[in-house]
Amino acid sequence: METRVHLPDSEPPATIREVVAALKKQKLIASHDKQSWGDWINFEGKQTVISIESMNGLTTSATIEEAEGEDDILIACITAFRKLGWFGEDEDGPYPL
Question: Which domain of life is it from (predicted)?
Fold first, then answer.
């Protein structure tokens, strides 16, 4: 399952460091993995990942790719993004997390 999240257009971009720090505040062991094909946030010992769109270390959107049976990770991720002021987005448009 995928959950798209983003900052409102009126907000300045966040740093990936801020996002990782917010995830760590939710007791997740998160790390930023920068690859030539994109930026990822991985969780130690888990299959759930976050594909985070980045330009020069700044981000406004991401996709949480939840692995089966890791609902607790998804809930913690959504809580972290909510506390940062991000919104979810689906086919009907943005919604509060």
Answer: Bacteria
Give the pTM: 0.94
Nearest one of 76, 85, 89, 75 to 4, comparing CA atoms = 89
Q: Give the tens place of pLDDT for each residue, 35-79.
A: 878 899 999 999 999 999 999 889 999 999 999 999 999 999 999
* Rounded Cα gap, residues 7 and 13, in angstroms: 7
Q: Residue 84: exposed, middle, or buried by beta-carbon count in 10 A (0-12, 13-18, 19+)?
A: middle
